[in-house]
Amino acid sequence: MNKLIIGCGYLGHRVARKWLEAGETIYALTRSEKTAEQFRQEGLHPLVGDVMQPETLTFPEDIATCLYAVGLDRSAGFSQREVYVEGLKNVLQAESFTPQRLIYISSTSVYGQTDGGPVDETSQTEPERDNGQVCLDAESLIRAQAKCDWNILRLSGIYGPDRLLARKEKLENREPMRGNPDGYLNLIHVEDAVQAVLKCEASPDAINELFLISDDRPILRREYYSQLAQQFGTPEPVFAEDNGDNLGKKCNNAKAKARLGFQPSYPSITEGLPASM
Predict the structure, then answer these.
(1) N or C: which terminus of the chain carries fewer CB neighbours within 10 A?
(2) Would you list the DSSP string of 216-265?
């Protein structure tokens, strides 16, 4: 079957490899001719275009599944809202954009809860930060304008190989970490995020639904950075002063497990961090 990836980056590129291994035909949108040539060498079919330039968007027919996983490239000069909302609108309104199913990667930042309590797909979405509101507005656009079946996957913070070096430098330099050390973090290993996409695609009875994708154990920020320090062999973390009011939230992945058969290979950072070095 023909598949399309819009946002073939840290997550999307890994999904592309899985689809290639299954013998699928993969189209991938990129703004760069250099990246397009790299995609060709890997067996992908590149489409050169930009979600911020609707006149460049032409998509193949007969796309069974489109994975939309666009991230923010700050060097491109656009705001997060412009890319996530206006760019998505440009894609949805493109005449040639006619997939059978759209899987949209969103974020648990849409939840504004800070009391340390649990959240799931039924929890209120009242984000306090702009990035959460932008993600929520993009979700609303999917619901209102998608001309195909859709799924929204709200992912916790993705970690994995090549995603931890900046934190290593901070630990080595003993830079104070931001945030309440006794507040919760919610994470997902990138390979488990890939699994969630594939499980969602393989679940025909789960169309037009959203799923919260997180590992099994929300973790205190203090524990996260302490385990990172142990893995890297750096000094223990130092935290900036914090008033302690923001305890974060605890994301519950029960629906994804029950409806999609999602089962993290890395249920917590205890298993995931060693696989990320």
Answers:
(1) C
(2) S--EEHHHHHHHHHHHHT-PPP-B----S-----EE--HHHHHHH----S
Q: 39 in a domain, yes or no?
A: yes
Residue 230 lies inside a defined structural domain of this protein: no
Specify the residue for token string 């917590």. Answer: 268
Domain-located, residue 258: yes
Q: Quick check: 214 and 186 in contact, CB under 8 A?
A: yes
Q: How far apart are the C-alpha atoms of 22 and 49, rounded to whole Å?
A: 26
CATH of the domain at 202: 3.40.50.720
Tell me which residue of 155, 156, 273 sits closest to 224, measured CA to CA: 273
Could you give the 3-state DSSP secondary structure of residue 164?
A: coil
What one-character-per-residue DSSP string does 94-154 give?
Answer: -TT---SEEEEEEEGGG----SS-EE-TTS----SSHHHHHHHHHHHHHHHH-SSEEEEEE
Range of the domain at 127: 2-159+187-216+250-264
Low-confidence residues in the chain, pLDDT < 70: 243
Count of domains observed in the chain: 1
- pLDDT one-digit tens code per residue, 163-183: 998 899 999 999 999 999 999
Chain segment 40-74, per-residue pLDDT in tens: 999 999 999 999 999 999 999 999 999 999 998 87
